[in-house]
Amino acid sequence: MPAVDTKKTRHRTVVMAHAVASGILVVAISAGLTGCADFYRQHRDFQDGWRTGEIVEIGRANEIQRGGRTDCRKTASADELAVQRFAILLDRSTGQRHAHIVMLDPATSVELGDTVSTNVVRCGTPVHVLSHARAPRD
To answer: Chain-wide mean pLDDT for the chain?
Structure first.
């Protein structure tokens, strides 16, 4: 039976374990940095006025009685107030409910209960429908 060199076997085992541990460390650091970058982007988007929420009311400027934390009717022109549709976006991104009055683009099909994303600070930013409201079950 040939003699086994335990010193070489031990060395190979240590080298392999070191390589595996290094690979795991690289993956963990990459995942951590990606998570931080995503968190920073979400924070920056929030600070810039981007919100995601549910449409709870749609109507002309004079039909919507409720105010909001931001209200695009305050900066809209007389023509926009007369012609455009507005909607109340209910945002829960901070853990509390905040209403925002946004102006709707006539080309965008939005219905009550839809989940949308838009910029509530820059009035006139297109509303992006993320998901449509589910039809009520009978």
So the answer is: 81
Of 53, 46, 36, which Cα lies nearest the Cα of 99?
53
Are 57 and 101 a contacting pair, CB within 8 Å? no
CB half-sphere exposure, 53, CA atoms < 13 A: 26
pLDDT surpassing 90 at residue 115: yes
Band of pLDDT at residue 48, cut at 50, 70 and 90: confident
pLDDT band at 103 (very low <50, low <70, confident <90, very high): very high
Closest CA to 61 of 78, 36, 39, 82: 82
89 forms bridges with which residues in the sheet?
55, 100
Distance of CA 83 to the CA centre of its chain: 30
Higher pLDDT, 54 or 2: 54
**What is the side-by-side strand order in the sheet with 85-91?**
70-71, 98-104, 85-91, 50-60, 115-119, 128-131
